């Protein structure tokens, strides 16, 4: 059962909904539902059918592929106020998901059923513009990721990931395996790099977390080669 509070939070996170016509707003409010994923829960599996257009109200999911050798490759993440480009692709094309997604934290979603999505795409200029603009932006980000993985040294990728994920106290709440998955490497290599950076005073390594000590050196790329 959807509540007025859930609807209000959805509209607050996605202000475009205020631009809907009265009839389209009624359709959206009447069909949207609000699934909640606990940390570690599966959002969708490889080749799953796409039943809903997903809009993230709060939390974070990670979208990834597994290689034949069993190594996880991060494609992108979806945070609060974001949508999933692969969900949009699947709804537009009618195919299954070409990747997998799991929640990294407790995640609240607004889910518009596929029939509602298609109706709004046909009839609502506001919704169609939002979806296509967001889709274009997310695709651009995916190409940036591909370029980074193909061209940027592992040291730079790991340093950027630490800086992006660090909280206000400089703590990254991730294991070495999670960081390795994020940067397209393996745990042993990431652990070795973090150990070297700890010796240089750039980071402090603890169980299940990494404390960023010298943001300036990480940001400037003043790192020893691996």
From TrEMBL:
Pfam family membership, one: HTH_Crp_2
SUPFAM superfamilies in alphabetical order: cAMP-binding domain-like, Winged helix' DNA-binding domain
Keyword Methyltransferase set for record: no
Annotated ranges, domain HTH crp-type: 152-216
SMART domains noted in UniProt: HTH_CRP (SM00419)
InterPro entries documented for this protein: cNMP-bd_dom_sf, Env_Response_Regulators, HTH_CRP, RmlC-like_jellyroll, WH-like_DNA-bd_sf, WH_DNA-bd_sf
Stored Gene3D superfamilies: Jelly Rolls (2.60.120.10), Winged helix-like DNA-binding domain superfamily/Winged helix DNA-binding domain (1.10.10.10)
Keywords, sorted A to Z: DNA-binding, Transcription, Transcription regulation
Domain of life: Bacteria
Annotated protein name in UniProt: CRP/FNR family transcriptional regulator
Classification lineage: Bacteria, Pseudomonadati, Pseudomonadota, Alphaproteobacteria, Hyphomicrobiales
């Amino acid at each position: 059962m959807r509540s007025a509070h859930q609807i209000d939070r959805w509209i607050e996170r996605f202000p475009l909904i205020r631009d809907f016509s009265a009839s389209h707003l009624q359709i959206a409010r009447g069909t949207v539902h609000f699934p909640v994923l606990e940390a570690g829960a599966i959002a969708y599996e490889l080749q799953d059918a796409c039943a809903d257009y997903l809009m993230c109200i709060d939390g974070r999911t990670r979208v990834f592929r597994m290689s034949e050798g069993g190594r996880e490759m991060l494609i992108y993440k979806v945070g609060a106020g974001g949508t999933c480009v692969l969900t949009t692709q699947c709804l537009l094309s009618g195919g299954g998901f070409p990747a997998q997604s799991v929640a990294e934290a407790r995640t609240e979603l607004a889910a518009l059923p596929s029939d509602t999505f298609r109706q709004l795409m046909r009839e609502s200029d506001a919704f169609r513009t939002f979806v296509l603009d967001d889709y274009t932006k997310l695709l651009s980000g995916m190409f940036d990721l591909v370029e980074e993985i193909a061209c940027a040294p592992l040291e730079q990728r790991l340093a950027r990931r630490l800086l992006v994920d660090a909280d206000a106290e400089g703590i990254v709440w991730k294991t070495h395996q999670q960081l390795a998955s994020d940067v397209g490497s393996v745990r042993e290599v990431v652990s070795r790099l973090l150990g070297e950076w700890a010796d240089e005073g750039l980071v402090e390594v603890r169980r299940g977390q990494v404390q960023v000590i010298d943001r300036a050196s990480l940001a400037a790329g003043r790192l020893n080669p691996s």
